[in-house]
Amino acid sequence: MSINIKVLNSFAFLALFSLSAYAEMEMNTVETVTIVGSQEDVAGSATVLSNEDLAKLVDTDIHKILSAVPGVYVRTEDGYGLRPNISIRGTAPDRSGKVTLMEDGVLIAPAPYTSASAYYFPTTGRIHAVEVLKGPAAITQGPSTIGGAINMISTPIPEANGGFVTQEMGSDGLSRTHMTLGFNAEKMSGMVEVHEHSADGFDSIANVGGDTGFDKSDVLAKLRYTSGAHELTLKLLDVDEMSNQTYVGLTQSSFDRNPRQRYGMTKYDVMNNDGDQTSLTYVGDFEGFKVTATTWSNDYHRDWFKVDKANSTKAHGVEDGIDEVIAAANAGDANAQAILDGSLAVTVKLKHNNRFYTNEGTQFNISKDIGNHSLLVGYRDMEDSESRLQSYECTDQTSLGGLTPLVSCSTGYTGSNNRLRTTTATSWFVQDTFTMGDLAITVGHRSEEFDKVEMRWDDGVPTRTMPNSSYPKYSSGDYSTTGVGATYDMNENLKLVAGFHQGMSPVFGGNAEEADNLELGFRYNKDVTALEVMYFSSDYANLVGECKNSSGGDCEAGDTFDGGEVDVSGLEVKASTLIEGVNGVSYPLALTWANISSEFQSSFDSDYFGTVATGDDVPYLPNSQLAAVAGFVTDTGLSGDIRIAKYGSTCSTAQCDEFENIESFTFVDLSLRQVLTDKVTIYTVVENVSDDADIVARAPKNGARSQKPRSVKVGFTINF
């Protein structure tokens, strides 16, 4: 791990000065990680999913957790949520690259400006709470401000000495262990957290067998020094993962035959990644204003070794790319299907998508109330990078479906396989909420400046002594976004909400994606009943697509493509209530619903978007979203919940040809919990109760993917 020493010294000086100067102030613990605050007063749409919410169905898949937030859409890939694809209000879902993702208020994408694709995502099983911010208030969080921001809150340091142990076992060799141990003295407090999660996987591999599961480990430590109204918190995180996951989906005929059997050629596919994160956060309340300042350093490495060319010699009249082989098989090419099934001998080429990321910087926020004005000012200075050193290995698939041992079949290490991209970025924002009786108006402005450089080498080996003559290449951006939101209290229960903001998502080497965003709605709260209804629209001046291995397309990963003007709009509803029954039983109910429409405003052909006609829908935006959770709670400690979630139909391309449509699908989950003592709780969860195997995605690589099958897990938690 590495922290900028100059910045660290500055923080140490600031902390020591503040702690000594205000040591006699009354103790006032200051929360350091939230971005939403009171969701009832936000001039925009905001949702806070508390630890109690997350515990109901013991979710470890962020896709399922976010089903409780209207307007947030997901594209499932591996069934476990290891590498999420999240869209907020119509942003492109690929690897959540158009959503600002944070943990404890710090950007967590491996390289948020250079390569925002979230191949790393915080392990959901250890996350304490989740905040989702949409609308004009989201401009305080960047760089991507069109859809919104998601902040994962890590396990807090306990208020007293102690901890807990959670142990889970389940279907397909599932095992999860989550442990914390903390202490809290007068001035010093801290904790250590361990989260181990593994499974054998629910897919089989045709002809050759093999593991399709994962093994993921997180170790987190926090240490905090508190004096008066001042805190200094050091956070250290180490992550490791090995997952036998593949990019290769199934042709329609293969899916119809067995939706949960992978092709034999994917046996060697595996993701290995590791990383460490360090942050130092100072929080101080100076009676007149509050300061939050953080310096951080994130290093992350991943090597996703996976099938790239399913027929590298172009034998049997079939093209080589895995996309092309699947497309040909769907079109009726018997040889292409036979190659995938393993009954034709071909050479399979696999690629080490081997990349190293850095993300480090400093940020601070200052807030102050002046009369009827509440001011918030923030600044961030950071640098991130992505380095690629990618090579190839090959295996021969025999006519009986077997695979020979892997051998190096090309050096690689040229062109985009041997490159370094770096971005330096500064941003600042100012936001003022001023209140005039029942009316509160929030005005915000954000500025983003970034300079990008790309280098490539032609060594052919993993060294960098022969620069490509066309490099370095430079690009820069200087963008400002402005927003205004308002809330009006009609009465003590009903609040009207309206807002407008200009959103932006940076693009490496191309024009930033920009959109004008509007929302109108209301919030109603009375006793135990809450209702929020929001209409939104996003008017894209230019929708930008970035070619990724996860997105497919006839393009080189990292290239960007303009999609022209696009209109996106929708209606979002979330509601909850609590029904008091008899004999000490109560019934909590929650509902989220959204519909969405999206249209390209021009016709064009693109290597990324394909053939697009005016009026076509944007891919991977389902036309509706519904999630309902109904539960019961007894005074004997027994409780349970049922969740029904349904996503409307969509397509994997704008043209939506045959084998590109994704019909609506539903999943039903059940949970049951029993509090045995004030320290011991047992639980069981059943996911996908009906064991549906609907197609939930046709990406990456054009192939169909199914829901995770019915699975059962049981567990217990012991607090001490």
Low-pLDDT segments: 1-31
Number of strand elements: 41
In round numbers, the mean pLDDT is 91
CATH architecture: Beta Barrel
Q: Could you please say which CATH topology applies here? A: Maltoporin, Chain A
What keywords describe this structure?
single chain; 720 residues; mainly beta; Maltoporin, Chain A
How is this structure best described in words?
The protein is mainly β. It has a 22-stranded antiparallel barrel. Strands 1-6-7-4-5 form a five-stranded mixed β-sheet. The longest helix has 17 residues, at 5-21. Residues 1-31 have low confidence and may be disordered.
Task: Give the SSE layout.
Elements: H1 5-21, E1 46-49, H2 51-55, H3 62-65, E2 72-74, E3 86-88, E4 100-103, E5 106-107, E6 127-134, E7 148-154, E8 162-170, E9 174-184, E10 188-199, E11 204-205, E12 214-227, E13 230-243, H4 252-257, E14 261-262, E15 270-285, E16 289-309, H5 322-330, H6 334-341, E17 346-370, E18 373-389, E19 392-397, E20 407-410, E21 418-436, E22 439-456, E23 473-489, E24 494-505, E25 513-526, E26 529-542, E27 544-546, E28 560-562, E29 566-580, E30 585-600, E31 604-606, E32 610-612, E33 624-634, E34 638-647, E35 650-651, E36 661-662, E37 665-675, E38 680-687, E39 695-697, E40 705-706, E41 711-719
Parallel strand pairs: 4-7, 11-14
Antiparallel strand pairs: 1-6, 2-3, 4-5, 6-7, 8-9, 8-41, 9-10, 10-12, 12-13, 13-15, 15-16, 16-17, 17-18, 17-19, 18-21, 19-20, 21-22, 22-23, 23-24, 24-25, 25-26, 26-29, 27-28, 29-30, 30-33, 31-32, 33-34, 34-37, 35-36, 37-38, 38-41, 39-40
